[in-house]
Amino acid sequence: MTKTRDGRARGRGGRLPGDESLICPPLDCGRTGALLAGAPLLAGLVQLPAASTAAAAPGEAPRAATDTGPVSVSVDTLTPSAPTEGDTVTVKGTVTNKGKQNVTDAHVGLRVGPLLNTRSGIDTVARDSTDVQSAVGPEVGDKYAEEFDKLTPGVSRPFSISVPVNKLNLGQDGVYQLTVALSGQTSAQQWEQTLGVQRTFLPWQPDEAATKSRTTFMWPLISTSHMTAETASDEQQTPLFHDDDLAEEISPGGRLDRMVALGKDLDVTWVIDPDLLASVESMTERYEVSGEGDETVVGSHQAVAKKWLTEVQKAVADKDVVALPFGDPDLASLAHNGTSVTGSLSHLKEATDVASETVESILHVKPSTDFSWPVNGAVDPSIVKVATSAGADKVIARSDTFEETAGLSYTPSAPRPIGGGTTAVVADAPLSTAFQGDMTKASSSTLAVQRFLAQSLTLDLQTGKRRSVVVAPQRTPSASQAQTMAEALDALQNGTWSEAQGLPAAARSEPDSAATTKVPPASSYPSSLRRNELPKATYEQIARTQDKLDRFKVVLSDQSRVVTPFGRALNRSMSASWRNRQSEAAIYRSGIESYLDGLIGQVRLIDKSETKLSGRSATIPVTVQNNLVQGVEHLVLRLSSTNPTRLEIGGNAYEEHPVTVSGGHSQSVKFTTSANANGRATVVAQLYTQDGQKYGEPVTFDVKVTEITATVMLVIGGGVLLLVLAGFRMYTQRKRAAARDAQERDDDAGEDAGDPQNPEAAGERLTQEPGADAKADGLEQPSDPAPDTAPENADPSGTGERVDR
Asked: Where is composition skewed (Polar residues) in this entry (predicted)?
């Protein structure tokens, strides 16, 4: 007990004995609370100097207009979240003295404030939830409080208060302000006062509502991009992850593990990025993770991945499943910065086409693919146009950007026909943003749950119309945020004013004719979101990489080994998860392009040095090397002469040959050349695809032509002439000698004929060798002339390549 300034004893809550009548019915609490709040205010005006002096005690600054007080009050649990008749409300929490003075004769009590019948009123109370200056209503009876003799600075003390709901004097259905307040005194202000409060909300709908809201809660399974475009050269194409963070998310207690464990018992619509499922499925087999430098390590979370996928399959069975385009592309960035880049929209179409097949093959359920979800549900005409370009005819927007313009006094139903057969499904912003922020503290989580339920009940009580309400929370809730969402949704689905509904059913429900159907203009798009969009350079790099991929794939014998991993990686490059991570996004895109460049470079021409051509014609070999695992085909190798008047190739300026090279092999292609003049000629070897597109870098080399020249012919001719002259001289000399010999023989014969003692002389001439006369007469023929080609040069060959002749 404390004493008033007139010496009378005062009970808790500042009530004098016999003041129990101040506990008023809820409908009168506002008036009574104002009177109670006004009494100390008037006293303060009368004793202003004294109060000011007390407030300016040493060590403490004067309080601001909105004062949180020196004591912090946290509400860690409030059960049940939405009580009904016969329940007992239990509030547990902690009080902490954050001031510099002891707090004495303190107690924590509950105060029920007036009925809050507007959603904006709920927001106002939540914004000023710790302000001790605002009227907080009368305190519930003395027995429903917890006392503290002293609170030392920096010390926290727990409390627990349980009150039967019938003691709270709740009246008509609706949301009541519930305040947990600590009252006490300090050495500087030695009278009882409110030193700390925490306001929250108590939804009160004890009976089943006549008209229940149909609430759709989107439960997102989305992560950031983890897989690269790179795969190993083995048969299974072992994938490479740029990190192993996904394993942490799906491991027990991880974010995605909690999302599945909590969502399986709730009536929700699962909104899934197929990339997440494909990535986890890749982890069920052998996979690798980038390490330091160029090193990789083998992943070891196969069992975790298999278990998580099994749990997802169980959780989504018989539930509504919506598949987003593969990689969850950022539709707003694409609309604002990508449509001017050729081919950007085709990636969205590919991502949409592959979504259904991916989800169905892994989860064995048929998903809906006709929903698109821009970041934060912010839309403008260009976003809607892009979002529906790939076949989706329902765009999930949010009410804080798709605002009502008709001045409705209630929240209209979610679906809005916006023309062209497209429906905007407008999620409720207060409900969708209720679980953002740090939910690791029990007090933050509890306050978020109560605020969510308060907004939901107030929305339901706005009108007797049955409406469809959609909740689209943040894309990647943390584990603590997921826990808070599950607690709120469990309380809602077990409550009395709402019933669950799937997203497809919500989109098909009857729209409110009074609701706006006009898409907000581009000028109303939030600047905070625009600043974080993927820039135009993103789509230019993606287009450049796609162009290289298109030229590369046509030469492959098995295109799927390259087209599929690169196509999915380019989809990931457009993901909304890259927002606020521009440098990481640029590194990821550059990694894709550089890896593709490396693969393209595995099929190349071998460099050639200078080639010598010693003759009028020869063949020149050019080698194509294929270091890929698979074979390449549909390539054409062209060898061109830059000076065809000197050196022709295939009788023209160039010659082409088709090329097919098996994986890991080389192939040499020979080209026929003919020289027309001496000198050096430059030739260029270039690979082309069959449609005439250049492939890879060209190889340029020189051909040195060394034909037989006129000077050489003169030298050879002079040599032949000398040989002929020498032969003629020898012939003349032999003829003269033969004539002398014949004359001598005639002379000897004449002498022998006149000598009867020598009869053999005549017989010797008769037996002379046939043809001897012919020789003697000079009828012998010279040898065949020398060939008209010079002998091969016996000198050492030059440094250039030799060619086939």
From this structure: 69-82
Residues linked to residue 423 through DSSP beta bridges, in sequence order: 394, 417
What pLDDT digit, counting tens, does each position of 256-310 carry? 999 999 999 999 999 999 999 999 999 999 999 998 878 899 999 999 999 999 9
Bridge-based pairing of strands 603-605 and 617-626 is antiparallel
Could you tell me if 190 and 100 lie in one domain? yes
Interatomic CA distance for residues 289 and 247, integer angstroms = 11
Cα 333 to the center of its chain, rounded Å:
13
Across 228-256, average pLDDT: 95
Span of 127-136, 488-497, 621-630 with lowest mean pLDDT: 127-136
Could you tell me the residue range of the domain that residue 680 belongs to? Answer: 606-706
Q: How many Å apart are CA 541 and CA 105, to the nearest integer? A: 69
Name the pLDDT band for 32 (thresholds 50, 70, 90).
very low
Q: Are residues 88 and 180 both part of a single domain?
A: yes
> What residues contact 754, with CB distance under 8 A and at least 6 apart?
none
**Three-class secondary structure of residue 13 per DSSP:** helix
Which residue has 């200056």 as its token pair?
133
| pTM for the whole structure | 0.79
Burial class (CB in 10 A: 0-12, 13-18, 19+), 740: exposed
Last residue of a domain, which of 204, 220, 245?
Answer: 204
Distance of alpha carbon 53 from alpha carbon 40, whole angstroms:
16
Please check the confidence at residue 792 and state whether its pLDDT lies above 60.
no
Segment 576-589 shows an average pLDDT of 95
Sort residue 256 into left (φ over 0), alpha (ψ -120 to 50) or beta.
alpha
Residue 749 pLDDT: 55
Q: What's the CATH code of the domain at 617?
A: 2.60.40.10
Partners of 106 in the β-ladder: 148
Looking at residue 340, what DSSP letter applies?
A: T
Beta strands in 651-804 (DSSP E): 654-661, 665-675, 679-689, 694-705
Q: In which band, very low, low, confident or very high, does the pLDDT at 12 lie, cut at 50, 70 and 90?
A: very low
What stretches of 601-649 show up as alpha helix (H) in DSSP?
Answer: none
- Which H/E stretch holds residue 468? strand 468-471
Q: Are 196 and 449 in contact (CB under 8 A)?
A: no
Same domain, 130 and 186: yes
3-class SS of residue 158: strand
Residue 124 φ then ψ, to 5°: -65, -45
CA distance 646 to 616: 11
Q: Which residue do the tokens 């278990």 mark?
A: 307
Q: Evaluate whether 76 touches 443 at the Cβ level (below 8 Å).
A: yes
Strands 174-186 and 694-705: unpaired
pLDDT of residue 5 exceeding 60: no
Rounded Cα distance between 731 and 107, Å, is 149
E strand or H helix that includes residue 407: none
Q: What is the mean pLDDT of residues 714-740?
A: 70
Domains in the chain: how many in total? 3
Q: What are phi and psi of 671, to 5 degrees?
A: -120, 135
pLDDT band at 719 (very low <50, low <70, confident <90, very high): low
Give tens-digit pLDDT for 331-390.
999 999 999 999 999 999 999 999 999 999 999 999 999 999 999 999 999 999 999 999
Q: Domain boundary residue among 556, 581, 598?
A: 598
In this structure, what token pair is assigned to residue 16? 């004098």
pLDDT tens for each residue of 450-474: 999 999 999 999 999 999 999 999 9
Q: Smallest Cα–Cα separation from 198: which of 220, 225, 219, 177?
A: 177
The token pair at 322 is 């919506």
DSSP 581: -
**Alpha-carbon separation of residue 235 from 229, 232, 242, 296, 672 (angstroms):** 16, 8, 21, 18, 40
Same domain for 685 and 652: yes
Report yes or no on 657 lying in a domain. yes
Closest-CA residue to 174 (of 24, 26, 75, 29):
26
Is pLDDT larger for residue 53 or for residue 707?
Answer: 707
